[in-house]
Design brief:
The protein is an alpha+beta fold. 19% of the residues lie in helices and 29% in strands. It starts with a strand and ends in a 6-residue tail after the last helix. It is an enzyme of class 6 (ligase).
């Protein structure tokens, strides 16, 4: 079954030290305490204790003991009572779009339980056929995994380590008043994506659209 890759922290061992990040909050978020023995962690004093570094990588192990990367922790979200893997949706979309850059994440809809899928797609040449995209996705993904929102960008920003910046995109959400890129939303009765403008946003926030 999928599991989180962790590493034991030993401050006196050069290979197992963890000096943390510039931001204290980021450092504390990467450390799990009370893992094996409760109360024996003294990370801040620099002594060796039972602290575990949380890598954020989800791995799976096969019957031979080989480990394979599955996805990053937090990249999954729950929608329509199902867990959606961002990595699986990204892979499916990228294949359909000729290996275009894709980032998938969950966003909230007022009054709706869970997080709806949103896909940011790199489309520098404006070639993505959004109108026909949903039909292509219908054969590639189950209904709960198909993105509700689509955002087209000229490019996808990366971090200093070349990871796609998903956190900022998630924070910007799907409000056309805040997002400068073309936005589209799924219209289930019509079975296609339609332009997401201010009027459509108000309808969604008022609960007049069912997904």
């Amino acid at each position: 079954e999928p599991g989180l890759l962790v590493g034991r922290i030993e401050q006196r061992d050069p290979l197992r030290r963890f000096d943390g990040y510039v931001t204290p909050g980021a450092t504390s978020g990467k450390i799990a305490r009370d893992v094996l023995d409760k109360g024996d962690q003294v990370y801040l004093s620099g002594e060796s204790g039972d602290q575990v570094y949380l890598s954020g990588d989800i791995l799976v192990m096969d019957e031979l003991g080989y480990l394979y990367f599955r996805e990053r922790a937090g990249d999954s979200f729950r929608w329509r009572g199902e867990n959606v893997s961002s990595a699986e949706v990204e892979a499916a979309l990228s294949r359909l779009l000729g290996h275009a850059g894709v980032v998938v994440y969950g966003v909230e809809i007022p009054g709706v339980e869970g997080r709806a899928g949103m896909a940011a797609i790199a489309d520098p040449q404006a070639r993505v056929d959004v109108a026909g995209l949903y039909q292509a996705l219908s054969s590639a993904l189950p209904p709960f995994a198909r993105p509700v929102f689509i955002r087209l960008r000229t490019h996808l920003d990366t971090t200093g380590t070349f990871k796609l910046q998903k956190t900022r995109l998630r924070g910007e959400g799907w409000d056309p008043r805040r997002v400068p890129d073309p936005l589209f939303v799924l219209d289930p009765p019509r079975g296609r994506y339609v332009t997401l403008d201010g009027e459509m946003r108000d309808r969604i926030c008022a609960g007049k659209c069912r997904f």
